[in-house]
């Protein structure tokens, strides 16, 4: 029974340590083709211009949790008049499994939607912008459930032996 309790407590402390390590890391975010009029907002969010325009490289970094966010402005980005039919789309890639990434994504969408409503769009295409690893999410879920199941199995065996 003590063994199960120890496993349960160690899994809880590991989950807490992962989330606290996530919050202590500095934010790493890049923008590509960002117009000059957005520089103040991007600086406030700590989103810096990418050294190169290799979108796939930054998407892989987001998948591997090395980078938090990538904003990709189209080459011919233009802010339209409110109510115009052809709005430029800003692609924002993030990883929902990483706390910093989700927090920065929320802040970014909030800042840009309040700046000037409906003169550009966010993530309007059919691309998958959340670059999480579904296998890692499943492993994390199992890692949280298995210690509890072991604890319950040990408890049930002990109760059956006590009869």
Gist?
By secondary structure, the chain is of the alpha/beta class. It has helices at about 1-25, 40-45, 55-65, 100-115, 135-160, and strands at about 30, 50, 70, 90-95, 120.
* Beta-strand percentage range: 5-15%
Total count of helical runs of at least 4 residues: 5
Shape: elongated
Q: Tell me the radius of gyration.
A: 22 Å
Q: Unreliable stretches, pLDDT < 50, 5 or more residues?
A: none
Give the mean pLDDT: 78
The span between the termini is 16 Å
By DSSP, the count of extended strands is 5
* Secondary-structure class: alpha/beta
Order of helices and strands: HEHEHEEHEH
Main β-sheet: number of strands, strand sense, barrel status?
Answer: 5 strands, mixed
* Biggest sheet, spatial arrangement of strands: 2-1-3-4-5
| Proportion of residues in helical segments | 40-55%
